[in-house]
């Protein structure tokens, strides 16, 4: 690189972050960093084809003092932001953000097709669906799900568990599809993955490319999953309400299934309220408060509070953004107390279900492997508890990986 030469950059996005900084990233890999605003001036100049000398002149005019552009370009190279002509034919894989994840971004839906589903009228309808559901629960408290009874629509526990599974998968998939379509409405790409939160297996949509957009427009994709949930819950509750009012004489199994599915949907929506587990509302919180790496800052501040912060971590914390530090002062305690909230969610909603399934399965397993009941109950229990088992395996794998890193 020479002062009179040009620098080839990748198709970087540059988004203002306040008055003094910009968010720069490579949408193809999902790598984003925050740099001073003068860095954005340099990148804009280089993207126009300006030489290093010309970019330095523009940066000096903006900053009021000389700027070391060659050093800055070297930093861009270390971040992987410089274009490599030898790699033009091969599209780079995005940075992995979940243990199980698609390798490529999805672009199969055109933005103009789904954009009407995320306009003002659509969001008004989604909000109305949520308010309707809350109103039904307030007026008809007997329709509020009760895990011990509503979770099992049939007398056969195994059949009830099998009736759960299609709706659980459908509800989870529709939630993530909502995120995907919300992102496509803004023209950005996503990909699906599987991760865990504590001992719970979760599906997730990688919305990393939201960082290429201004903060004010990121809320749609972040809340799109809950919007789909609100519509589905309202539809299910409408059926239950009609039965409760005597306006629909549905067969008893239909009413029982609706009650079970309402329980599942309410449980999933309450899960998204647990902000200390990096749920959808956590992402909304981070975006609203202008945070960049709140999860990491929270961990470092807790380590400091308990006297376990290393010198390297102290330096990392000192370089954190003001928004992260300001939020981390109270969010660390929310996270610490969140264990009790997560335990309450599990004990009140899932533990009664799991306990009943395990009790029922134990009775069948006691009959021995030569009976049909043994294998039937083993199959039903495995299907229902399988996701949590996979989450535990992922947790053990992560723990082993951390131990190996510390030893090395």
Automatic annotation (TrEMBL):
Keyword tags: Membrane, Transmembrane, Transmembrane helix
Bilayer-spanning residue ranges: 117-139, 151-172, 222-243, 255-277, 333-354, 374-396
Protein name: PqqD family peptide modification chaperone
